[in-house]
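Why run this: before we spend reagent on co-expression, it is cheaper to look at a predicted model of the complex and decide which construct boundaries make sense. The entries below are exactly what would go into the expression plan.
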Amino acid sequence: MESQPSQERNEQPTKEVPHVLVMKPPPLLTLFEDKFISTKFQLLKAWESTLPLHQFLTTHAGSVRAVLCSGASPITPHIIQLLPSLQLVVTASAGINHIDLNECRRLGIAVTNAAGVFSDDAADAAVGLLIDVLRKISSADRFVRHGLWPATGDYPLGSKLGDKRVGIVGLGSIGSAVAKRLEAFGCTVLYNSRKPKPWAPYPFYSNVHELAVDSDALIVCCGLTAETRHMINRQVMVALGKQGIIVNVARGAIIDEKEMVECLVHGEIGGAGLDVFENEPSVPKQLLELDNVVLSPHRAVFTPEGFMAACDLVVANLEAFFEDEPLLSPLIDE
Amino acid sequence: MDSQPFLAKTFPPLLVLRSPSVPPFFFFKSQLQAHFHLLDPLDSSEPTHSFLSRHAPSVLALLCVGATPISSETLSLLPSLKLVVASSAGFDHIDLQECRRRGITVTTAGQAFSEDVADFAVGLLIDVLRRMSAGDRYVRSGSWVTKGEYPLGAKLSGKRIGIVGLGRIGSEVAKRLVAFGCSIAYCSRKEKPLVPYAYHSTVDELAKKSDALILCSSLTKETHHMIDHGVMEALGKEGVIVNVGRGGLVDEKELVKFLVQGQIGGAGLDVYEDEPLVPQELFAMENVVLAPHASVYTPESSTALQELVIGNLKAFFSNEPLLSAAQLE
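The model came back. Tokens follow.
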């Protein structure tokens, strides 16, 4: 890293403070702009320019070493090509499917995300969705709000959590937080991951189909990649079975949504708790009619505390980078 | 009239008392008929009073189905009664004082429901904090497409949970919430030794130090309207109340006022003061989750209850130790 003479830096601070490129503002930046103010860097806001992005980058971003991206401004090989000095990609999200990791790896560009700060909240939501589907909580709430309790009297039975075998798809920071919670309910935890985790005391399944065969519920906690796209397909769902429940707090595209809708409508799986969908905010119409699904508008994993912590983590990573210190949450190649 | 098999007359007689409004979940007739000769006033055209008087001499055991009231008046018609088998989680509907006075043993539902009720309580808490049912309504109504993002919910991990009544259900709730990174405190009639949670002697004290109260205690004269104006004020504007105990634990009118005025953060309710009536004001609220007294409703709880009830009765009639006799203080 080039070192700046300290005198020069003190005389003209703003000129020397390095830029962080932002092509489109991530939701967190819009919500909490003042959390991103730092003495160690300044934001280069491409969207505020009248220039088209391509031109803006070639004109202004030649010496940019760091970029703050989001789903709305993905880091593609094309973009990377326009940023010859790029060394760091920072995202405020847990998900990284909007970043071309292969290209970054090839060029030695570091990537940081915010998975850790959302893990507890995501796990709380995942377990909440599972309980809701198994014990029909939202369905019961509809029943009461529609005035059906006095009229109909009896409410249908749900299903006990504790004797369920729950398969966690992806035992990363979110998946392991889910596992810890499920153990307290007496559930048996199983998992599938790219590779077995030496620290995990749960049975490992090398593919998600076999996991589904042995599970009563699947909780999807993995990242979206080329390998995991539509990984939860019809075969997996049929293996999960007619009483089986799917919970997804990861990315909609990990599940073949069309097939899932068919399976739900035809009773080939027992129910689903979904916080994410393939084409948000569009949700398949058939799901809106079903009583055995719980639908959440990609909100379940977000809390104000989680968002604050994500902002802090983004800033901390950027500041560490510009001070030549270790990054706080770099993606590690597994 | 009698639909029982011929040999049933040699089974021990069991008086069955049940209100017609009790949900079918609590009355497993065929399983009982396999072991006992059921005496059920509802199956007879005779008025209950005279039915009881006529059968009284042979009635040693009575099954109280669900929350059917067992008053001292009813008990006074049964001079030979030695055992009342309860089949619901609470027994505030049974005159326990009279049972104690008469030396009548009461058996409880033991552990049959504890886990399922605890699971439900945790589910209600997450739902209220994270607006899950409200979010679900938002999606189903098409608002996610037309109105955009739904507001953020509140974090659960790290919250201070106050458990009101650390009995079997309360303990199971505590165990679960510890795994979510919550800190647990409780209040109870007496401090429980060997319990790793902070004890508060009054519910006001507990409320002051909590972000959410989970009501798991039984309903007695002392606990009636225990959650009153003062407690709700102490809990505060962000505070959440989850009730899987009995509606009567809460001053419901006050709770509604607090919710309507935004003086409390939210509520997850499975029980109410006058079931199945639920205060209409609650129907429009986003920070409230309403359930129809369903926290025990799983087939697993049903099976566990049947086994326990029948097990207690068989033990009684064989002069063996009962499985879940209540300590009547």
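Residues 59 and 204 of chain A are 51 Å apart (CA to CA). Residues 4-13 of chain A have pLDDT under 50 and may be disordered. Bring this page to Monday's planning discussion.
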